[in-house]
User: What shape does this take?
Amino acid sequence: MSVSINRVPSLSRRTAGFWTRAFVVFGLAAPAFAGCSATPDGGGGGTGGAAANLTGGIGAICKDGGGCAKGQTCRSDTTDWIAHNQCTASCATDADCTGSYGSHTECIGANICVAKCLDNADCPTGTTCNEHGWCGNTGPGSGVPVCSGSPTPCSLLDSTSCATALGCSHTGDCTGASTSCYSLHDSYSCSSQSGCYWSSSSSSCSGSSSSCSASSQYSCTSQNGCRWNERCSGIQFETSCQKISASLCKFTAGCTLVPQ
Assistant: This one.
């Protein structure tokens, strides 16, 4: 009997300890389970509710200037198409966004808070994870145009387009036949011609004029008989207009915005 009495309290303490630990674990895990719920597949975009909750509504699609949480605005940008028809808030630093809307937000160069992402699953319904790592509004019905066309080769660009096309640059070559020194009959034209020398005593020009092989436009055009042929060379950084965001489309020659 004494053995039985001594063991029962010990068993009770172990049992009590087990259930105490179980309740603690369950209590800690309960909030995590409570936050999980099945969401329908959002197709090409985010899954919606769960993603929107993580960002306090930042990045959600909105229409006609309304439909956003308190403190947020429905952004309209028909110039650069950045976060067009999406809920945003003004910011100067990432802390302005994360402090109010959580760690899944950030402040971008347009000084607005957006929803950060690694893939579409991180984004609010109807938005997609863009190449900059935040959820953007795009696709049919979004009101945001898409970049279409084919980038024009640098060699076919005019001077103005070449100057703005990423990957292209102005180059050229010097061609022609430099004028002979003996064909120059005054001091100025003789002295200006590379390779020629003016003789004051004989009032004549002599020497051997440099060939038209200058590497710069100034040196080429300074040589009588030579001409500079300008051209655009290089390879455009972007190889497909479809991969370019609406805000950068205008900077790639050959690409244009097409309404959706």
Q: What stands out?
A: Helices lie at 2-34, 49-54, 94-101, 159-164, 187-192, 217-221. The radius of gyration is 36 Å. DSSP finds six helices and twelve strands in the chain.
